[in-house]
Please model this.
Amino acid sequence: MNTTIHSSAAERFGNWLGSRWRSYVRGERRVSRWLVAQGLPAGAAAVLLWIVKLFVLGTLLYTVFWLAVLLAFVAASAWGASAMNNPEDDVWPFTDMDELRNTPGYDPNLYNDNTHVDYTDD
Model:
């Protein structure tokens, strides 16, 4: 019987992420202790760390916003370019008067079709 434990990729990723988070928290505590050792009150050190975190978060959100705007502009430009180069739009949908007369809603007066039997000259 095999007694080795196989962890899934999700478990390994969770362990990796947890170790990175613990490393970040240790570094933050180290910076906080250093600031207190430099003579800054503990409350002010905590506030300073929060200000730095909020500044980093704001910078990231600002960057992501402009990247989203750029992506939307690129998508709109691509959609416009693909709609502009549609060769089917350049073709007249009716090739001759016989096909036009067979379409629903055809009115000979609108086309001045004096060869049609329903044409009335007003």
